[in-house]
Amino acid sequence: MIQRQLIRSALAIVCVCAVFTGALYAWHRYTYPFGASHCCDKQLYPVLLGYADSNGGRFPDGEQTPEASLSLIHAKGEHDCADLLRGKTGSQEVAQEILDQGKLLDPDTCGWNYVPVHRVDDDHRLALFGDKEGLGHNGQRLPAGGHIVMFVGGFTEYIPAARWQEFLADQERLQATRTVAKDE
After folding, report:
1. Which comes out higher in pLDDT, residue 4 or 158?
2. What is the pLDDT of residue 182?
3. Which residues are CB-contacts of 119 (< 8 A; sequence separation ≥ 6)?
4. Most-buried pick from 56, 107, 110, 182 (CB within 10 A)?
5. How far apart are CA 16 and CA 35, in angstroms?
6. Where are the domains of the chain?
7. Tally of CB atoms within 10 A around 140
8. What is the tens place of the pLDDT at every residue in 25-35?
9. pLDDT value of position 26
10. Rounded to two decimals, what is the model's pTM?
């Protein structure tokens, strides 16, 4: 009798643990849809500043896509950063393979939305880059959707999905009034 109760208790504990583990796994997959990642804007921004410092104040630009322009920080030997350039959604192995071949990343292999027309002396409120999928600092889904954006001035701001269209309109307005340097 006692042995039967022990078996039932053990089975109940196993079932509870299985349900808890499944719930934890489901929560983790929902919260971190691409897995946990620390490819963050606070790492990318100083690399971009270093690039601009050695290129007359210009951030990477001039390639066919914004992602390819961003790849120039690797292509010009500024930084070995396949993991950083892939963003929170791309494959480090794929990005590394492409960059090792001397090629540039494209929209499918780079997880950043990058605006390649800026200089360090542009309006500090202009967006420089943000995560394409709208993920948080460690790759977690943001609570109200939207995106975390890094600005030319070196600060970040979380723009919730409800304000995203307003933000894009403000960026268009700022871009339209941007003063272009004479040597561009």
Report:
1. 158
2. 42
3. 52, 57, 58, 59, 152, 181, 184
4. 110
5. 25
6. 1-31, 41-176
7. 17
8. 666 566 666 67
9. 66
10. 0.81
